[in-house]
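Subject line: Sequence and fold of a protein, written as C-alpha cells
Area: Proteins and the way their chains fold up in space.
Start of record: The labelled sequence and C-alpha cell lines come straight after this line.
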Amino acid sequence: MTDLAEALEAQDAVRVALALRNGTVTVPLLPVDGPPQVRVFRRGDADRYMLLLFSSPETYVAMVPEEPEHPVADYDCAALKDFLATNLGVLESVWFDVAGPHAMQATPQDVLDALELGA
C-alpha cells in the first residue's frame, strides 16, 4: 500500500499532504496522440473541472473499468504543483481515489498550499 493510500484510509489530510510532497500520485491522462494531457472531469454542464488523483493505477481503473484504455502518469510534487498553479482558475475541486472506499476532497488552492509549504 502506498503512503497516499494509507493516508486516505486514515482520512488524515496532513498525511495526504506529506504523501503528495514526498512521493507520487497517479494522474489520469487523455488517450490522445501527441503530448500527454491530464484528464479532468466535469459535473454535467458545470463551468469548472474536477482533478481526480489516485493512489495507484488500479484505483483509477476501478473508477472506469469499462473504458478500453487507462493511460496514467505518476506526478511528483513539482509536476503536481505546476499543473495546479497553471490550472487553478478552471478547477473547482481535487478528489483523491474518488471511487473509494477512502475518497477525500480538497480545494485546488488547499492542495497547492500544502505542496508549497516549506518549499
Q: What stands out?
A: The mean pLDDT is 95. The longest helix spans residues 77-87. The helical segments are 3-10, 13-22, 57-63, 77-87, 108-116.
